[in-house]
Amino acid sequence: xxxxxFYIVMLTMMLNIILNVPMVLVQDRFHGSIISIVISIIIGxxxxxxxxIGMSRFPKKGLPEIFHEKFPAYIRNPYLVFLGIMWMxxxxxxxxxxSYVVKLYLNPEMNLLLILGFLLFIIIFxxxxxxxxxxxxxxxxxxxxxxxVAFILFKAITSKFFYFDHIKRMGHFIWQIPxxxxxxxxxxxxxxxxxxxxxxxxxxxxxxxxVLWTLPIIGIFVLCSTFFIPMGFLGVNGVNDxxxxxxxxxxxxxxxxxxxxxxxxxxLCLYLLLVLLFGIITWHIGLKLLEGVFIGxxxxxxxxxxxxxxxxxVFLIGMGVLTLILQAITNQRQFFYIxxxxxxIRFPAEFMLVVLVYLISxxxxx
Amino acid sequence: xxxxxxxxxxxxxxxxxxxxxxxxxxxxxxQPIHLVYIQNLCDxxxxxxDIIQPLMLCEKESKFLLHLLSLTHCQVxxxxxxxxxxxxxxxxxxxxxxxxxxxKVISVLNNQPEDATVEMVVQGPQKAFTQNLNTNLALxxxxxxxxxxxxxxxxxxxxxxxKIAILYDVNYADPIVINEVxxxxxxxxxxxxxxxxxxxxxxxxxxxxxxxxxxxxxxxDRTVLxxxxxxxIILINGTPFTLILPAVFFDFISSMDDxxxxxxxxxxxxxxxxxxxxxTLILPAxxxxxxxxNPEILRSQLTLTIAGSRSGVxxxxxxxxxxxxxxxxxxxxxxxxxPKAIGPxxxxxxxxxxxxxxxxxxxxxxxxxxxxAFVAIANFTIPVNAMSFAIRCIRYPLILFACFFGMVGLVxxxxxxxxxxxxxxxxxxxxxxxSWGSSDKIETITNVPKGGHH
Lengths: 366, 454
What we know:
By secondary structure, chain A is an all-alpha fold. Chain A has 15 helices and no strands. The chains are: A mainly alpha, B alpha+beta.
């Protein structure tokens, strides 16, 4: 099961090539984005390392069980709720962003709420499944999607509209003091490892430590492509004019001999697959974190299963309705402002969680 | 002696004075002997050779008794309550010197292996199982001469009392699975059970399900291969099909042929099969999504070709697809049930005339005819029937999703389908999960050796 951890980390990396992260990095491109990429790789790797070391001291246990042993209820429960909501929010934001993309490119005549509602339906359906089932699902989708993502990147780099000179021009802006939000956004690509908080129940995290060195390398590659490739296409200034630079540039790529001529549609379907999967995973992890709070362990097994099922559906549908309301009351500009705000809060929250898990694991004799 | 007559009379009453109950009474060694059996259930020849003839040859009573007891299926009855049961299971009851003996003389029907008709292979064993449980067991024992092979008998069905045998290799089979099987078998409450599919439905935890989680096969070679991979086999008397469990998704896409071909041929076959699976699942939905929602996805020449062929069609692509899919489903259903003599007529009328005419009348586009044929052919490449039927069914929800949401609906539908599949468990084994060639995997057609593990 060890490999499933990598799939989830890969998923968040691949997803953030096009969503949210490039938006922030591109905005801050003259204010130290490049340095922040370098810093974020160091910070991100450190976080992953500490968190995995921490979790590996608690074999086969998820975060709710660990907190259950270590903290009293009045500290544990609010914190788990906070983490659960934060985590579900990341899925929600990916979903809402993508519903704008769908509206823009695939179903222009359809109501935005209807599109989002459909996506939410799939996510609620998927997130209510068992944790190990979702890991199998992740594997299947990543195995299908990863080569295609690689193909799209390859197509982009070899395109004749890709000018390396634009990227060279960015060399002038290396030595800038990085802004906080760009570091915060760049570290976000590593966020997949947080899923270990629940997935640790199924994964032997000790085995992970040996192969961890691969993640920073993939991270460098992903961050560079998410930041530089749009710039090579659109120019240092022009890149700021589009909302989804990646989707914009894949529209200029052609597969001359394919059934599907425009790479754009391959990208759209592929990323729809990834966004839905990401939504399913984050909502599921959020659900499990909250289940640790609300569902007691001392009730009998049968009523517990019933209560769990009821809780799952009521909670997921409730969150679905909240997401719909969020989209209904905000426009795209406001929505991206919220995402940026959330990315900024997320960074200290992530930091706190990693340090906390690491510290309590030091006191745990493994 | 009176007691014996009394017993025979109660037997008669218990069996409703049925006319095929034969009571054969005669005197020998100066005492009455009664043979009681049900006429057509028992092999008269066997009664003659094993009981009557030796009786004539034995001068002393004790000698005949010794002979009787030396017969393999003969026993002295201690408990007189299940006499009717013994009769119904094909025993002859011998009332002799104040004792009752039962001897199994059931006439064996349908015990000749015939050619496999449902699951065929090109180069490989050709014979299927028979309808007789004992013959089937013998077939398996011959192919799998292992001292670790364990057989357990049970009977299922309150009225039919169908005999089933549970087989597994003690070394490889998972005890959890075996316990689960026995547990579920004990909970089955059904009157008559006559086929493997019926038992599969009864064993399934969910009453409403679509995908098969147990493999039904008529091939002894597949059964034995699965036995060697640690699966549990259930043989059912009266049907040439056996149940294999647990089964995973990939089992249903594998054919025994995969083992008999060389590597590249095998790879080609497997790739073709998975492509066919993809085609038969998503092509109709894709057609709707592309023609009705996102024609710009395809390259422009292809889009124009499709639009051109659809120009005369007076309704949305949804009707077109449903109409043609329905026609194919009916054709398939009709050709299963039809007598062989009429079969070709149905295919000619349905396939050639209807298809051609529908296209010329511009009720469906010619591209749609191609799609329909492609989908139907692709569906037939799935080697195991149960899965092929399930895939046929699951096509329609995808069509519906594509109708309402176009490409988004199709991608979403595929994810929903994957969610359902990965969440299924076949006796604790995940139904759909990739296991990258490890030797512990429970997957049928594999070249990874298992002997020597554990």
